[in-house]
Design brief:
220 residues; Aconitase, Domain 2; Aconitase, domain 3; 7 strands
Length: 220
């Protein structure tokens, strides 16, 4: 079993709230200390380590009992698409075509968004960059508009330094501000269409629903 990367733990902590969870926790580890130190948050790392060692905080209680334990083998989990309209509407990728037809959802994809305010980490962006490079090497070009929203200014600056943003822009992508604007569908939309997000933070709000935009999350 391979441990989750820190950014994967972050996603696992933030996304359950979209389907009703009130608390999500991971035990504090040395990787978190390294991350906090490298992102100029050493005082937080120091305080967390102290709380962990002195009071046994930030970890599960010894012999803790749980009402239910659910084990998910991520290596066997098929990619899913969540949405539209609600995050708990999850469909395996292999069945999505049939579900679209059954619900009479638009079959034409109009735009794509890489990133969000929550979990568009540097690691996520590098994976998306690799896909773009593979497509370019195969002579493929995007058929719809796609947008990129880095998770923070630090991530944006790092992506610019490493020319990842340049790869996206050469492929026709548009780099937007480090925000949730497109994900929350903050503009007026009059047509019915499909909008996908590779690394989603939240689901479409009322504005998006009333304007008949079908927002989806692709979980890879």
């Amino acid at each position: 079993m391979y441990p989750l990367f820190l950014t994967q733990s972050l996603v696992s902590n933030t996304q359950p709230s979209e389907v009703g969870a009130t608390t999500s926790l991971f035990p504090f580890t040395s990787k978190m200390t390294s991350y906090l130190n490298s992102t100029r948050r050493a005082p937080i790392a120091e305080a967390s380590e102290k709380a962990n060692k002195s009071h046994n905080f930030l970890r599960a209680d010894t012999n803790a009992a749980y009402d239910q334990v659910i084990t998910i083998n991520l290596s066997e989990l098929e990619p899913h698409i969540n949405g539209p309209f609600t995050p708990d509407l999850s469909t395996p990728l292999s069945k999505f075509k049939d579900v679209v037809k059954e619900n009479e959802w638009p079959e034409q994809l109009s735009a794509g968004l890489i990133g969000s305010c929550t979990n568009s980490s540097y690691q996520d962006m590098l994976r998306a960059e690799d896909l773009v490079k593979q497509a370019a090497a195969a002579g493929l070009k995007p058929k719809v508009d796609f947008f990129i929203t880095p998770g923070s200014e630090q991530i944006r600056a790092t992506l610019e330094r490493d020319e990842t943003l340049n790869v996206f822009e050469k492929a026709g992508g548009t780099v937007l501000a480090n925000a949730c604007g497109p994900w929350y569908v903050a503009w007026n939309i009059t047509r019915r269409d499909m909008f996908t997000n590779l690394f989603a933070a939240a689901l479409v709000n009322g504005n998006g629903a009333t304007s008949q935009r079908y927002t989806l999350i692709i979980l890879l």
